[in-house]
């Protein structure tokens, strides 16, 4: 039975998830329900349920948004036609795409415009992959990292680009990169890997956990790609690993021969779920933290949302004849609160 839990740091919410959750919380606070969101704002069932309780309706087809309603696009990035349709239908449309995903979209458009055949390494059907490929479908070939390049044949071997879904495992990306570099010496890739910093940090922490534990539990939902990647990284390191959404998923038989249990969480998993999982493990000698790096990345709220809230503030100030208009509002304090605070606020309402 578990004597100790070794808790990974960093784990859980990344800067992109923080931004998206706070942005949708603003939408819920400003507009009367329902507020619509194209796709789950982040891939975590607990987070989705909090927003549904607060009056958010998640849709998988943008035409399901009634004209004139506010709508937010998810953190995973959306296809250009979805963005255009949402802009046309909605009274207010806010795109909460993660800036790191936006970078990949820019790369797809630029390389396609320059005549490159683009290999996009990702998982078919994932929201992020769908949005990125849609930027230039005629130029992009989606390659599953578990399959490899197969029979991919570019029109010009000197003009091949390699891009990736940001939530892949390091070893998944590396395998395709090595194969592509061997086949096409002039291969273009981004100077910095497309893989998200948070994805990389969390996978590094799992590798460190694997050196010291008997079992690793990864907290996160089944449709979270980066969560599933953490499980694969742990197993590749030779340690038994399981994904759990929460404490109810922890099985007694997993713990029978595990003296030290490693715990981490995907980038969209709330820390409250992590704490509940640790309670279910019930380590006899408590919790020890394993830190591999500190994260201080911050992504500001989407520009359109910031502009809308600022205009709203001025309208309210004008309506009430506030003498000292334009003073600092809550947007200026955005760094001082986080997604966990936002979810707790919604849960109390």
Estimate the global geometry from the Cα principal axes.
globular
Terminal CA distance reads 40 Å
The structural class is alpha/beta
Taking the sheet with the most strands, its summary is: 5 strands, parallel
Q: How large is the radius of gyration?
A: 22 Å
Spans of at least 5 consecutive residues whose pLDDT stays below 50 are: 317-322
- What are the secondary-structure elements, in order, as H or E? EHEHEEHEHEHEEHEHEHEHEHEHH
The amount of beta strand, in percent, is 15-25%
Mean pLDDT: 92
- Assign a percent range to the helix content: 25-40%
State the CATH architecture of the largest domain. 3-Layer(aba) Sandwich
Number of helices, where a helix is a run of at least 4 consecutive DSSP H or I residues: 12
Give the beta-strand count: 13
> What is the CATH topology descriptor of the largest domain?
Rossmann fold
**What is the class of the largest domain in the CATH system?**
Alpha Beta
How are the strands of the biggest sheet laid out side by side?
A: 11-10-12-1-13
Number of domains: 3
Describe the protein's architecture and organization.
40% of the residues lie in helices and 16% in strands. The strands form 3 sheets. Strands 11-10-12-1-13 form a 5-stranded parallel sheet, sandwiched between helices. The chain has a 4-stranded parallel sheet with strand order 3-2-4-5, sandwiched between helices. It has a 4-stranded parallel sheet with strand order 7-6-8-9, sandwiched between helices. It has 349 residues and is α/β, with parallel strands linked by helices. It is globular and about 55 Å long. The model is unreliable at 317-322 (pLDDT under 50). The two termini are 40 Å apart. It has 3 domains: 4-13 and 197-291, Cobalt-precorrin-4 Transmethylase, domain 1 (3-Layer(aba) Sandwich); 15-98 and 321-348, 3-Layer(aba) Sandwich (Rossmann fold); 99-189, 4-hydroxy-3-methylbut-2-enyl diphosphate reductase, catalytic domain (Cobalt-precorrin-4 Transmethylase, domain 1, 3-Layer(aba) Sandwich), CATH 3.40.1010.20.
């Amino acid at each position: 039975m578990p004597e100790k839990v070794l808790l990974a740091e960093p784990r859980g919410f990344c800067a992109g998830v923080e931004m998206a959750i706070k942005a949708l919380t603003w939408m819920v606070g400003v507009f009367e329900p329902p507020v619509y969101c194209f796709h789950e704002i982040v891939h975590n069932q607990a987070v989705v349920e909090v927003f549904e309780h607060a009056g958010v309706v998640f849709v998988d087809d943008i035409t399901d948004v009634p004209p004139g309603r506010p709508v937010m696009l998810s953190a995973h990035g959306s296809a250009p036609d979805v963005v255009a349709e949402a802009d046309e239908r909605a009274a207010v449309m806010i795109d909460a795409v993660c800036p790191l995903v936006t970078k990949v979209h820019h790369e797809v458009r630029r390389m396609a415009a320059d005549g490159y055949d683009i290999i996009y390494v990702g998982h078919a059907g994932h929201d992020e992959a769908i949005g990125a490929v849609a930027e230039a479908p005629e130029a992009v070939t989606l390659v599953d990292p578990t399959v490899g390049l197969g029979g991919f044949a570019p029109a010009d071997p000197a003009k091949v680009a390699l891009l990736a879904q940001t939530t892949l495992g390091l070893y998944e990306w590396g395998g395709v990169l090595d194969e592509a570099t061997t086949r096409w010496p002039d291969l273009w890739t981004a100077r910095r890997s497309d893989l998200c910093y948070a994805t990389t940090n969390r996978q590094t922490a799992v590798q460190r956990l694997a050196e010291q534990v008997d079992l690793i539990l990864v907290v996160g939902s089944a449709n979270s790609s980066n969560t599933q990647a953490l499980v694969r990284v742990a197993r590749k390191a030779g340690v038994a690993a399981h994904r759990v959404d929460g404490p109810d998923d922890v099985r007694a038989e997993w713990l029978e021969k595990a003296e030290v249990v490693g715990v981490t969480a995907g980038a969209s998993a709330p820390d409250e779920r992590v704490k509940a999982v640790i309670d279910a493990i019930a380590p006899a000698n408590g919790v020890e933290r394993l830190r591999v790096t500190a994260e201080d990345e911050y992504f500001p709220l989407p520009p359109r949302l910031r502009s809308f809230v600022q205009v709203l503030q001025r309208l309210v100030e004008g309506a009430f004849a506030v003498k000292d208009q334009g003073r600092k509002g809550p947007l200026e304090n955005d760094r001082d609160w986080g997604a966990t605070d936002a979810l707790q606020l919604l849960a109390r309402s």
